[in-house]
Amino acid sequence: MRPLRKFTLLVLALVALVAGYFLSDLAVKMGGTPLQFSPILTLLVFCGAVVLGIFGQAVKRLRDGKSSWIQLAKAPLVALVAQAAAVWSALFIGYLLSQLILVYQLRHTEMAGSFAASTIALSLANLLLLVIALLVESWCIIDDGEDGPAGGKTAPGGANPASV
To answer: pLDDT tens digits, residue range 107-119?
Structure first.
């Protein structure tokens, strides 16, 4: 499993920002309002970041040779969840930033203050999730050279060279 590239996450966030802005701006021009999120979502994202951090710490302790409640076979699963959380939070941060740009343009309306506050809180919770996900991913991933050996030669039938 390869680590996520930060550039890929940045591109995903920018795509979500542009698409979110244009779709939300279109909705506002058609007489609608921007999509508002419940404060419960902020709490859920924060709790998800905490749980992911707990699992990541357990894997880190195990890799450091200390006793842990998690099995080594679960480390790739934790890394996969961390990667998924990083991609999701990058996309969501991009979308939320587009909403902040939109609410800045609509700052004269009476809903702008509460909308901006809830959007900023959700953005910060997603930023925390992104940082924790990238940390947990770095703790869990073992770079085993999935591109093949340096010489480019593999054993016949894809067998393990040590067992041939």
So the answer is: 887 778 888 899 9
Q: Are the C-beta atoms of 94 and 20 separated by less than 8 Å? A: yes
Query: In 10 A of CB 69, how many CB atoms?
Result: 9
Report the alpha-carbon distance of residue 20 to residue 15 in Å, rounded: 8
Q: How far is CA 95 from CA 23, 57, 62, 142, in A?
A: 10, 29, 36, 32
Closest CA to 124 of 104, 100, 107: 100
What sign does the dihedral 3-127-105-109 (CA atoms) show?
Answer: positive
Q: Model's pTM, two decimal places? A: 0.81
Distance between alpha carbon 155 and the CA centroid of its chain, in Å? Answer: 37
Q: What is the DSSP string of 61-117?
A: HHHTT---SS-GGGHHHHHHHHHHHHHHHHHHHHHHHHHHHHHHHTTTSTTHHHHHH
Instruction: Tell me how far apart the alpha carbons of residues 2 and 108 are, in angstroms, rounded to a whole number.
Output: 47
